[in-house]
Write a structure and sequence with these properties.
0% of the residues lie in helices and 63% in strands. The chain contains no helices and 19 strands. The strands form two sheets. The protein has a 17-stranded antiparallel sheet that branches. The chain is mainly β and 303 residues long. It has a domain at 63-69 and 99-301: Porin, CATH 2.40.160.
Length: 303
């Protein structure tokens, strides 16, 4: 379950609106079977990154609005790799928090066309916690700095009439910030975790058909380009080109709105060759297939 909660307030006859959101912009939960051919590279990776974001928007005139606010972020991370000795394992758990910001603008020159853009600042988490490298060391204080990217989004909405809305978005994510993660251990040599990601784009397209009695139905698609080269590929984040299709329906009422949707995420098999081996000689070369389904439900109360 990935919960999200949003609230907004627009004073009557005022050009300002205020909002508060709680959501999860980044997340990971992956565990490979014990004894895999790359278990000294990856066994388990978990990331929980939660944002609480107070926002404010100003409608300058009937065509132009701007907004922005803070992002108050808290994250927990867990990583696990095997060491080829009886009971051998490297494990790290850490937590940290950071503050960022967002900016946005919407321009609606006509009733049919709307243009929008959004920016979210980069953040850096200096995860502090404990690690062990059994059977060589017990728990020791460890820090690992993990940068999270800035990203920018631009979009356009076209409403030819009151029954249709067509949209297109382009997202850019600055994954170039994510290079090599260093595990700074208090009593033993540092451990390096090379990632060397690269910036990438997401392309979104969707359409909504408004039906009678406040019902609507939507469908959409987006393509996510992979951000990793074969040489730095790691099974903890088995990144690949992804195609995402979604469809949903819902109803808007006087006080209650609701929506139900489902999506499927998949892509062509990724064949990795020439990946960097671990210090124990294992690499991540092979064929990877990704397939994921999800169901999403949202409800809105207006009062």
């Amino acid at each position: 379950m990935v919960p999200q909660l949003f609230a907004s307030y627009s004073p009557a006859d005022k050009p300002f609106s205020f909002g508060l959101g709680m959501y999860v912009p980044y997340g990971l939960g992956l565990e490979w079977p014990e004894g895999s051919t790359f278990d000294t590279l990856a066994v388990e990776g978990r990331l929980s990154y939660t944002t609480i974001s107070p926002q404010m928007a100003w409608q300058i005139n009937d065509q132009l609005s701007i907004g922005g606010g803070l992002t108050l972020n808290y994250a927990e991370i867990k990583l696990r790799q095997n060491i080829p000795f009886p009971g051998g394992q490297f494990k790290f758990k850490g937590i940290d928090d950071d503050i960022g910001y967002t900016l946005g603008v919407m321009w609606r020159p006509t009733e049919k066309w709307s243009f929008g853009a959004k920016y979210r600042s980069a953040t850096s988490m200096n995860f502090t916690g404990y690690s062990h490298a059994l059977p060589f060391t017990g728990n020791e204080t460890t820090e690992a700095r993990l940068p999270f990217p800035q990203f920018a989004v631009g979009g356009v909405s076209f409403r030819p009439n009151e029954k249709w809305n067509f949209e297109f978005n382009l997202d850019w994510t600055d994954w170039d910030r994510l290079t090599t993660v260093t595990f700074d251990r208090s009593t033993n040599p540092d451990l390096l975790f090379p990632l060397n990601w690269r910036s990438s784009f997401l392309y979104h397209a969707g359409a909504t058909r408004y039906l009678g009695k406040n019902w609507w139905v939507s469908a959409g698609y987006f393509f996510s380009a992979n951000s990793t080269k074969d040489v730095s590929f790691n099974p903890l984040v088995p990144d690949t080109n992804l195609h995402v299709g979604a469809a949903g329906f819902g109803r808007k009422g006087e006080r209650w709105d609701w929506a139900l949707s489902s999506e499927i995420i998949t892509g062509p098999d990724r064949v990795v060759q020439g990946s960097t081996p671990s210090v124990f000689g294992q690499n991540a070369d092979g064929r990877y297939h990704f397939l994921n389904y999800s169901v999403n439900f949202s409800v809105t109360l207006k009062f």
